[in-house]
Amino acid sequence: MLRVSAGTATVLGLNRNKTAALPTTAYFMQGEHCLMNCAFCAQARSSRSREGLLSRVVWPQYAEEEILPRLFRAGREGLVRRACIQVVRTKDYKSETRRLVSTIQSVAGLPLCLSINLSTLEEVLEVAGWGVDVIGLPLDAATPGLYRSIKGGSWERSLALLEKGARLLPGRVGTHLIIGLGESEEEAVQLLAHLVQSGVQVGLFAFTPIKGTPLGDRPQPAPDSYRRIQVAHYLLRERLVGADRFSFRGGRLVDFGLPFAELQKLLASGEAFRTTGCPDCNRPYYNERPGGVIYNYPRPLTRDEAERELSLLFHSLSE
């Protein structure tokens, strides 16, 4: 049995759910009931969340023999462009993940990404040898103190592993950064600048409170704050401006170092507000509830949406 995100199950024809945006990557969850104890995670060791959750997404179970032929057809028809395995750290997580990677590669032939907890550079190189396209080593927290209190362990060691992996495997190492855990905008942007400079792909997430976790009562980040960080990330990864041009006041980002008209032109398409991470990853409704604030747009923005987000951004900068 294998857990599949609800949206992926819809794309594969395993359910009849209706959704405004379908995933362009097929998402799977390998294992459950993690040995780790991240305070935000529904799969954490001490979590009391209902079974089958990861962030706010439901991951129903299906038999692999039912999933794999459908995944092959979805890939052939262009409905999905890659597969992504979210690996929960269990006793035999590496051997089970390697088996699943091999199975998906042999049946579907899609580019494949992993989000996986690894401790050493040797492990990273071992997983790269499986033919994985992108290896995601989730950092999640923007500062050492937040990492220790929310995830446990050494932020410095995890960051060093990302840097070494990206150096040896250009374009094949990524991470997740969750905004809203208690960091300042300046701390988040400084880390983003360092990760981009180091060649690490970054998937930006908005903190999402999950009932049954220690952080279940914490609010999501303010939309205007998240937009400022998104724009900083976009400008950095597109090499449109250096981090030394940004200005902060009391930890808040107040200036991107570009004239208003130039910034408006660069951001007019709304691309800065879309989901980031691996190629073809759009994670619909991973941080959002239908009808609520869209933190990461899973598709191109309409003109009205782009104008609305730019208005929010520029209004926040003028305050």
Architecture overview:
By secondary structure, the protein is α/β, with parallel strands linked by helices. It is 36% helix and 15% strand. The strands form 3 sheets. The chain has an 8-stranded mixed beta sheet. Strands 3-4 form a two-stranded antiparallel ribbon. A two-stranded antiparallel ribbon has the order 11-12. Strand 7 (112-115), helix 4 (121-128) and strand 8 (134-136) form a beta-alpha-beta unit. Helix 7 runs parallel beside helix 8 and helix 8 packs across helix 10 (303-318). The N and C termini lie far apart (52 Å).
Q: Please tell me the CATH architecture by its name.
A: Alpha-Beta Barrel
Distance between the termini: 52 Å
Please give the count of helices: 10
The first-level CATH class name = Alpha Beta
How many domains is the backbone divided into? 1
- Residue share in helix: 25-40%
**Class computed from helices, strands and strand pairing:** alpha/beta
Could you tell me the CATH topology label: TIM Barrel
CATH superfamily: Aldolase class I
Strand content is: 15-25%
Q: How are the strands of the largest sheet arranged?
A: 5-1-2-6-7-8-9-10
Q: What low-confidence regions span 5 or more consecutive residues with pLDDT below 50?
A: none
Strand segment tally:
12
| Biggest beta-sheet profile | 8 strands, mixed
Net shape: globular
Series of H and E elements: EHEEEEHEHEHEHHEHEHEEHH
Overall pLDDT level: 93
Radius of gyration: 19 Å
